[in-house]
């Protein structure tokens, strides 16, 4: 008998990955690779990646370490693209749908031509934005939304926030740029921190009512603009460095949230007399632990898309590089590592 069966070669795709954890100036810190194209199962979507964005988490994961990978590790946790295929249990999206999302830290990242993601953490891309503009939003938007509404307990009704103020430390960065806009929409008085004229101007452009210098003591600056205390503090930069200032500035029964892990213990006793609350925010918590409310990230991304399309929220993309390749990703990482970027750095097109 003639065996007419012919094996089909595994499809491959372009990606940017790493084998070694190296300083970003090293050309091998991020390299162009070819890897197998994945297939969706369960509630996964296979997304054709059109644009990506870079976040501090990318730099942190890629930062120098002694270990090496046996297969290329792909980073990237901001994607805008088009659904190519859906898993057998997926029901929220169909092939051809335009989407945006941040993905999961426990799975391969989105710096590849195609990417698998659980549909419960995916939103419909704002129709008014390009793929590059949309790719700037997911990770920072989820972080800002969860920080304000889930961790700090900010009310969604503007009337409930009358007379209340929030201090956003690092207001010109990626998360700060979204948090400022969301806080203004919620009716809060927004006081941002910045240290350079360009970042201060950016924070004001996005809606900050006041801007103070995070290299100086907070309370005297707050009093200078008419505030003896603030109801909420969102810390997006160096938690331990600002801890004493935050404890001094927070109102009795106020709430502080930080997204930045510490290198040393925090003295929580500083909050005791004020009965103040401290909470952490990590937008990967829901996807890492597959929490029962994991689908809330799908819902919030859809809600933000509606706000964007209504003109209430603007994208925070500030620079776009093309195409998506190792050379441009190394440039983007280097920009972030200066600590002086305003808004988001985006890459588009393979």
TrEMBL record:
Task: Tell me the SMART domains matching this sequence.
Answer: PKS_ER
Matching SUPFAM superfamilies, A to Z? GroES-like (SSF50129), NAD(P)-binding Rossmann-fold domains (SSF51735)
User: Which PROSITE patterns does the UniProt record give?
Assistant: QOR_ZETA_CRYSTAL (PS01162)
> What are the record keywords, sorted?
Metal-binding, Oxidoreductase, Zinc
Coiled coil regions in record:
none
What region holds the Enoyl reductase (ER) domain? 25-347
Q: Which domain of life is it from?
A: Bacteria
Gene3D superfamilies attached here? Medium-chain alcohol dehydrogenases, catalytic domain (3.90.180.10), NAD(P)-binding Rossmann-like Domain (3.40.50.720)
Q: Please give the PANTHER family that the UniProt record associates with this protein.
A: PROTEIN AST1-RELATED (PTHR43482)
Q: Which family does it belong to?
A: Belongs to the zinc-containing alcohol dehydrogenase family. Quinone oxidoreductase subfamily.
Q: Which NCBIfam families match?
A: adh_fam_1 (TIGR02817)
Entry protein name: Zinc-type alcohol dehydrogenase-like protein
Tell me the organism: Cohnella hashimotonis
The taxonomy runs: Bacteria, Bacillati, Bacillota, Bacilli, Bacillales
């Amino acid at each position: 008998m003639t065996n007419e069966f012919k094996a089909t070669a595994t499809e491959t795709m372009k990606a940017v990955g790493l084998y070694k954890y190296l300083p970003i100036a090293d050309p091998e810190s991020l390299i162009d690779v070819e890897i197998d194209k994945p297939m969706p199962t369960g509630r996964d979507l296979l997304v054709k990646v059109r644009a990506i964005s870079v976040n501090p988490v990318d730099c942190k994961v890629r930062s120098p370490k002694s270990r090496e990978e046996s297969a290329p590790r792909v980073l990237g946790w901001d994607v805008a693209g088009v659904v190519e295929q859906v898993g057998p249990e997926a029901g929220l999206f169909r092939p051809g749908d335009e989407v945006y999302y941040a993905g999961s830290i426990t799975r391969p990242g989105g710096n590849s031509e195609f990417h698998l993601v659980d549909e419960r953490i995916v939103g419909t891309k704002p129709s008014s934005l390009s793929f590059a503009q949309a790719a700037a939003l997911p990770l920072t938007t989820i972080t800002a939304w969860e920080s304000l509404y889930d961790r700090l307990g900010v009310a969604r009704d503007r009337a409930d926030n009358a007379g209340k103020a929030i201090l956003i430390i690092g207001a010109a960065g990626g998360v700060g740029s979204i948090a400022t806009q969301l806080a203004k929409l919620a009716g809060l008085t927004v006081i941002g921190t910045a240290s350079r004229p360009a970042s201060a101007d950016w924070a004001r452009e996005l809606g900050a009512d006041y801007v103070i210098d995070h290299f100086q003591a907070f309370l005297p600056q707050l009093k200078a603009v008419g505030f003896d205390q603030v109801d909420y503090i969102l810390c997006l930069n160096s938690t331990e460095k600002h801890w004493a200032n935050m404890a001094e500035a927070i109102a009795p029964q106020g709430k502080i949230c930080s997204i930045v892990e510490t290198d040393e213990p925090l003295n929580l006793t500083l909050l005791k007399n004020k009965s103040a609350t401290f909470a952490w925010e990590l937008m990967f918590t829901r996807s890492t632990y597959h929490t029962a409310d994991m689908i809330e990230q799908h819902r919030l991304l859809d809600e933000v898309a509606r706000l964007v399309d209504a003109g209430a929220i603007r994208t925070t993309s500030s620079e776009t590089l093309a195409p998506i390749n190792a050379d441009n990703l190394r440039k983007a990482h280097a920009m972030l590592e200066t600590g002086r970027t305003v808004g988001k750095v985006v890459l588009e097109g393979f």
